[in-house]
Amino acid sequence: MIPLPIKSYSTFLLKRLSIFSIIIFSISAFVFILLFKSYYNNIYTLLLIFNICVTYILLLVFYKTFIESPEKFNKIFLFFLPIKLLIYLIFFGVYIFLNKSGAIPFTIIFLSLYLVFSVFEVKEILRFSKN
């Protein structure tokens, strides 16, 4: 199968990520409204947008690398993995430092979104690497 040009893949990825994010947002809104209304914080929306942006950028970099040079893919992936973790850790640390009172709900939401978006990222990488 011929790989998509980067611009076409970018549009395709944006559509997939948008649908995925709308589903995640809908499920979480439902959960917050019904079960954990008192734990909802406006930072949740920012956290969702943060995850979308990081995932989108990294997947574009990974796809471009894979298309140009599949041999370099592992090196680029292993290079960006600690950078991604560092970016998330900085975001997490700054929020916890500024808002100690909401640390536990934020941590649960943060880790849940990190896990969900990491699964999406891995599935997307496997999808384009098989083709």
What would you say this structure looks like, in words?
- The chain is mainly alpha-helical and 131 residues long.
- Helix content is 85%, strand content 0%.
- It contains 4 helices and no strands.
Approximate strand percentage:
under 5%
Task: Supply the helix-strand structural class.
Answer: mainly alpha
Radius of gyration: 16 Å
Oligomer: single chain
Describe the biggest sheet? Answer: none
Helix-strand pattern, N to C? HHHH
Overall spatial form: globular
Mean pLDDT: 87
Extended strand count: 0
Give unreliable regions as ranges.
Answer: none
Question: What order do the helices and strands come in, and which of them pair?
Answer:
Blueprint: H1 6-34, H2 43-68, H3 70-98, H4 103-130
Helix pairs in contact: 1-2, 2-3, 2-4
Task: Write a short abstract of this structure.
The chain is mainly alpha-helical. The chain has helices spanning 6-34, 43-68, 70-98, 103-130.
Q: Which key features would you list for this structure?
A:
131 residues; mainly alpha; 4 helices
